[in-house]
Write a structure and sequence with these properties.
The chain is an alpha/beta fold and 296 residues long. The chain contains 9 helices and 14 strands. The protein folds into 2 domains: 148 residues, ATPase, nucleotide binding domain (Nucleotidyltransferase, domain 5, 2-Layer Sandwich); 111 residues, 2-Layer Sandwich (Nucleotidyltransferase, domain 5). A hairpin with a 4-residue loop joins strand 2 and strand 3. Helix content is 34%, strand content 24%. The strands form 4 sheets. It has a 5-stranded mixed β-sheet. Strands 10-9-8-13-14 form a 5-stranded mixed β-sheet, covered by helices on one side. A two-stranded antiparallel sheet has the order 5-6. Bound molecules: beta-D-glucopyranose. Beta-D-glucopyranose binds next to helix 4.
């Protein structure tokens, strides 16, 4: 399914229209775990239990597709009329057939993966619609994981009052993801976590996984993150930063240690924003495609 990027302000209108879906499946593929949930699109909340399964290693198209299908099946099994057995064969359709959005930790253009820094190299050039899309068996949209988190935060969370500003959302996890919004519109596929600082890819020293890998305490890591954000201030000049990823839940331990010129806030949905934004975008794209078909 081809992508389009409605402005944040148009999303409510799309979702509020007659015939719009009230919920959608959101899946967030991360370097260490795959998170999935059914999302209430009016409230921007996960309904029922969110499912978390480990990202397989190596994360090839085949292993990841199986893991994503398993996570989706577990989510849908919680719904009335849902897939009865999460272990049902690969060919069995997963029900109910709500639309889905899948947040991927890389760049997906026209259904093809063109960049995936933290997954197996066999993803490069792979057609994700024919792998994960086919396994989910429903209208399915793929987007970058940080872009998904940003859509959720700009629609329902920390950025909902900043539609007239330039906002840079950074997700801090295995890598550093970036989602850039200006006047409520996403500039998709930015890969600002890979800006080089001192000749080194920034995410290798300033991501949350680097903090763990190098045993950094919060002040040491906050200094690295500040250094990275100065580069963002210099190059992008955002009006605000939103910090997401699992570590945003512990923001009380480190946000005050950052030394920035720009206002910075934690993600309101913490690590759930990827699931929620993926579902919102999946539903919005399905809705706009449905409308175009009706107009023909
Ligand atoms: C990837 C990005 C992704 C980020 C967070 C980076 O390594 O290149 O596409 O958004 O990690 O997962």
């Amino acid at each position: 399914m081809s992508n389009s990027w409605p402005a944040v302000t148009d999303r409510g209108e799309l979702r509020g229209s007659a015939g719009a879906h009230s919920c959608a499946l959101g899946i967030d593929i991360g370097g260490s775990s795959i998170k999935a949930g059914l999302v209430d699109l009016e409230r921007g909340r996960i309904m029922g239990e969110r499912v978390v399964v480990p990202t397989p290693h190596p994360a090839t198209p085949e292993t990841l597709t199986n893991a994503v299908r398993g996570a989706a099946a577990q989510v849908l099994a919680q719904q009335p009329g849902g897939t009865s057995s999460p272990e049902s064969g690969y060919e069995a359709p997963l029900t109910p057939p709500v639309p889905a959005g899948v947040a991927f930790p890389g760049v997906v253009k026209n259904g093809v993966v063109t960049f995936a820094f933290n997954l197996d190299d066999s993803w490069l050039g792979a057609n994700i619609e024919q792998t994960i899309g086919a396994a989910l068996g429903r209208p399915c949209v793929f987007l970058n994981d940080a872009d998904a988190a940003g859509i959720a935060e700009m629609t329902f969370g920390a950025g909902r009052d900043w539609h007239d500003r330039t906002v840079l959302m950074l997700t801090l996890g295995t890598g550093i993801g970036s989602a850039l919004f200006t006047r409520g519109r996403l500039v998709p596929f930015t890969e600002l976590g890979h800006v080089e600082i001192g000749g080194e890819d920034a995410e290798l020293s300033a991501s949350a996984s680097a903090k763990v890998r190098f045993g950094m305490d919060y002040p040491t890591w906050a200094a690295k993150l500040s250094r990275y954000c100065w580069e963002m201030e210099k190059l992008i000049n955002p009006d605000a930063f939103i910090f997401g990823g699992g570590i945003s839940q512990d923001h009380a331990d480190w946000l005050h240690l950052l030394d920035l010129q720009t206002p910075a806030v934690p993600a309101a949905m913490f690590n759930d924003s990827g699931i929620i934004g993926a579902a919102v975008h999946g539903a919005d794209v399905a809705e706009s495609i449905g409308r175009k078909a009706l107009q023909r």
